[in-house]
Write a structure and sequence with these properties.
alpha/beta; two-stranded parallel ribbon; 10 helices; seven-stranded parallel sheet
Length: about 325
Amino acid sequence: MTKTALITGATGLLGREVVKAFQRAGWDPVGTGFTRAQPPSTLKVDLGSEEDITTVLDKVKCVPTCSQLSAANRFPDRCDADPTGARAINVTATRLLAHATSTRSIQLIYISTDYVFPGHRGEAPYEADAQTKPPNLYGQTKLDGESAVLAETGNTDLGVVLRVPVLYGHTQDNQESAVNSLVGAIWKAQEKGADTSMDDWAQRYPTNTEDVGRVCQDVATKYLEAGEERSLLPRILQFSSEDRYTKFEICELLAEILGLPLDVMARNTQGNAPGGSVQRPYDTHLSTKALKELGIDVQTQNFKDWWLVNQQPRL
């Protein structure tokens, strides 16, 4: 019997690659979106509507089935600007989906973030069971989403959390990714009279969306094949590249690939400004130990090599 995967947020940066990963593995993935949904290839579903969620789950019903939640407000500044909206998608919608999948015996994979950890100097890498303490509202809403998934699926063990760091990959618009968007910052630095600076303090581990998609499919297969023994498997997993950069170092690398100078871009080594609206962690590197123990491949594409092959347009 063909396995079905329902991918929420399938029109987004990560969701598109998750759909492709399940397709390559012989699954029947069904994608959902909202503002960018184009039926029938992607179904339009309002994740804030319990009726929409239950309708789509019943429509694509197939055993075994997996639902993967990629839809989220994943930009810290936008979360602070609209905390109500951030909680609606990152917490409330997550709880609704977790309840609906669990009551239908559907496995759920919830995509979370490394920002659930405080990221103080010297603490990383963080194991999956390390003490959480989000530095900002975005991290807190994702942690609350994790709690919702684990609580709603506690009786069935059908909820799994997968934490990932900042993502990059093929985009429809570079602004989809906090990494790809740096291409625009590099071009802006070429303008006459440009006075730009870039963070050279926080440590980041940019991870390719294709790799995350593959791991999502591997996790789905592993947990579905475990059957009743899934209760013995970990409920929280983590995946990350080992490539380590600051945003300024990423700009240096991309400028070199693009053949552009970066003389006018200043290094900002200050870190978080006192009283700044959105505090960011220094280093939230994720340990992939739990995935390795499951026998899941945690290798990732080399960051520089990917960009050498996939130079992005200016915008």
